[in-house]
Amino acid sequence: MVEFVDIVKVHAAMVRRIATVYERYPDRVDDLVQDVWFAVWQALPRLHGQPMLKSYIARITQNISVTHVRRALGRQTRPLTDMQPDPAPPLDEAAAHAARLACLVEAVRSLPENLKAVASLYLEDMSIKEIALALGISESNASVRLHRAKSAIRLSFGELS
Predict the structure, then answer these.
(1) 1 plus 61 within the same structural domain
(2) How far is residue 58's CA from residue 17's CA, in Å, rounded to a whole number?
(3) Residues 9 and 56 in one domain
(4) Is 8 within the bounds of a domain?
(5) Distance CA 29, CA 159 (A)
(6) Cα(81)–Cα(26) distance, rounded to whole angstroms?
(7) Domain containing 46: what range?
(8) CATH number of the domain that residue 157 is part of
(9) Domain holding 34: CATH number?
(10) What's the half-sphere exposure (Cβ side, CA atoms, 13 Å) at 92?
């Protein structure tokens, strides 16, 4: 049987990236990640021979993140305001890349839940088949959602097509 520590080492970055799509504050991301690993640890005895462990962990991460967002919205007492990106030009290529990445994360965060889930898993280099398995939907539905998510992201970047 695979050790829990090994599972965490292999999938920690993916879990953190998915949680970051749903929560912008680093301390809350840490809480989400901790909740995910606790849920994975609890499910470990039921995971004997799980063929798609990555998809299973991604699904747990999605579910816990969505639940977190729904609870946070229920506690929200004031409207959210959109953050505007810094209009200053980037200083170098690394800064430009970081700015593009931040814009991408914001674009994914602004997607509806069904598209956000597919887009965040796609950004983890998961195939359509793995995404469908992780979300419990058909491959064709995953493909359609991914196409819609990509179109919405392109629009948010001002690209046409």
Answers:
(1) yes
(2) 10
(3) yes
(4) yes
(5) 30
(6) 18
(7) 1-78
(8) 1.10.10.10
(9) 1.10.1740
(10) 1
Q: Taking the CB of residue 135, how many other CB atoms lie within 10 A of it?
A: 20
Question: What is the full per-residue pLDDT of the chain (161 aa) written as tens digits?
Answer: 568 898 899 999 999 999 998 888 899 999 999 999 999 999 888 876 667 788 889 989 999 988 888 887 666 555 555 666 655 554 677 777 788 888 888 889 999 999 999 999 998 889 999 999 989 999 999 999 999 999 999 998 876 44
Q: What is the pLDDT of residue 43?
A: 86
Q: Provide the angle, in degrees to the nearest 10, between the axes of the packed helices 128-135 and 113-122.
A: 130
Number of domains in the chain: 2
Q: How many residues does the chain have?
A: 161
User: Of 78, 111, 128, which closes a domain?
Assistant: 78
Contact 36, 58 (CB under 8 A): no
Q: In which element (H, E) is residue 35 found?
A: helix 26-43
